[in-house]
Amino acid sequence: MRLPEKWEIIYYEDRNGGSPIEEFIDGLPSVMHQARVLAVIGLLEEHGVGLHRHYADLLEDGIHELRVRVGRLRYRILYFYWQRNKIVLTHGFAKTTRRVPEREIRRARRCREEWLSREKRETR
């Protein structure tokens, strides 16, 4: 299988047009934190599935995490792959526990289910 040269990053939007990932980035404590998060998103856009474990990892059920560290703070952005070359970022959070909380993974799954349901309706 040949990988696409460039991956397309999509910010998930809910039914009301809200974007949890955009709200997460906008709510970060400083421009430096935002810049670091956006830089790692840029790496994901460039490398896609080839982005190594230091920055990205599969959690479960097709839900992946993007890992961002700024000083002592650890941020996670959850995402899933869609179609051949698209990556949908669902939401982000500050990681304060050893493992990614199950509620965050469930949230990403719900976002994916809603996304796929809407896309299916729109392509009919």
Topology:
Blueprint: E1 8-11, H1 20-26, H2 31-47, E2 56-60, E3 63-70, E4 73-82, E5 86-94, H3 102-122
Parallel strand pairs: 1-5
Antiparallel strand pairs: 2-3, 3-4, 4-5
Description:
This protein has 124 residues and is of the alpha+beta class. It has one domain (8-122): RelE-like (YaeB-like fold, 2-Layer Sandwich), CATH 3.30.2310. The protein is 36% helix and 29% strand. The chain is built from three helices and five strands. A five-stranded mixed sheet has the order 1-5-4-3-2. Strand 4 (73-82) and strand 5 (86-94) form a beta hairpin. It is globular and about 45 Å long.
Keywords:
single chain; 124 residues; alpha+beta; YaeB-like fold; 5-stranded mixed β-sheet; 3 helices; 5 strands; 29% strand; globular
Q: What Rg do the Cα atoms give?
A: 14 Å
Query: What is the mean predicted local confidence, pLDDT?
Result: 92
CATH superfamily: RelE-like
Q: Count all strands and give the number.
A: 5
What gross morphology would you assign?
Answer: globular
| The CATH class | Alpha Beta
Q: If you consult CATH, what is the topology? A: YaeB-like fold
Largest sheet: 5 strands, mixed
- The parts where pLDDT drops under 50 for at least 5 residues are none
Put simply, the count of helices is 3
Strand content: 25-35%
CATH architectural group: 2-Layer Sandwich
